[in-house]
Amino acid sequence: MSAMRWDNLFSDFEAQLAAAGQLELEAQVADLARAEAAGIGLAERLRGHGAAPLALLLAGGVRFRGRLAHVASTWLALDSGPYSVLVPHLGIVTIEGLGRAAVAEGSAVRRTLSLGSGLRAIARDRSPVACFVDAGAGEPLTVAGTLDTVGADYVEIAAPRAHDGGAARGLRVVPFARLIAVRSGG
Q1: Pairwise CA distance, residues 112 & 104, whole Å
Q2: pTM higher than 0.85 for the full model?
Q3: Which phi and psi (to 5°) does residue 118 adopt?
Q4: Element (DSSP H or E) covering residue 63
Q5: Sign of the C-alpha dihedral computed for residues 93, 146, 46 and 97 taken in this order
Q6: d(CA 77, CA 43)
Q7: 77 close to 89: Cβ distance less than 8 angstroms
Q8: pLDDT tens-digit series, residues 30-73
Q9: Of 104, 85, 120, 86, which Cα lies nearest the Cα of 42?
Q10: What is d(CA 65, CA 10) in angstroms, rounded to the nearest whole number?
Q11: Closest listed residue to residue 81, CA positions, set 64, 57, 61
Q12: 3 state SS of 5
């Protein structure tokens, strides 16, 4: 075999090894990226989103569009026009417009804010709210009033007072697990 043929043969082997090495490296990078993505929660993705608007489809077909105001580990607050909307993550069906960035929460206090914490902040304001409640089938039930009491896993919604200043018409107790969203303001 001539020297030229040997050079071509070794060059071909080197090219094949380099290509195989590149493919293996790309496969390892892809595996690492998938493993890293598996450890990222929805809250981290939401925190990394920034100020662009999002469109949320919630259980029961409820829809809101707006900008993120706050992200906790199990809920988010959305500025939606004249309204603020508190949405438990469990009520979210889909999110449109969410970027790919993810940001971990640096504050231990913010990281541990429960759904009850967010609801208690709304209850302190005594502002009128519309609570969207999963009634089991079809469209959600909308309960208007003020958040009266926030328990460990439920919220009491006081019906609006009668126009003549009379007593509240009653309380509805809603377990957190059935709460789709709470809209306040406006």
Answers
A1: 13
A2: no
A3: -65, -40
A4: strand 63-71
A5: positive
A6: 12
A7: no
A8: 556 555 556 799 999 999 998 899 999 999 999 999 999 999 99
A9: 104
A10: 61
A11: 64
A12: helix
Contact partners, residue 67, CB within 8 Å, separation at least 6 = 51, 52, 53, 54, 78, 79
Lay out the sheet containing 171-175: strands in order across. Answer: 92-96, 54-58, 63-71, 75-80, 83-88, 179-185, 129-133, 141-150, 154-158, 171-175
Q: Rounded distance, CA 157 to CA 144, Å?
A: 8
Tokens 């009033």 found at: 145
As a whole number of angstroms, the distance between CA 163 and CA 11 comes to: 90
* Cβ proximity of 160 and 148 under 8 Å: no
Amino acid letter for position 32: L
Query: What amino acid occupies position 49?
Result: H
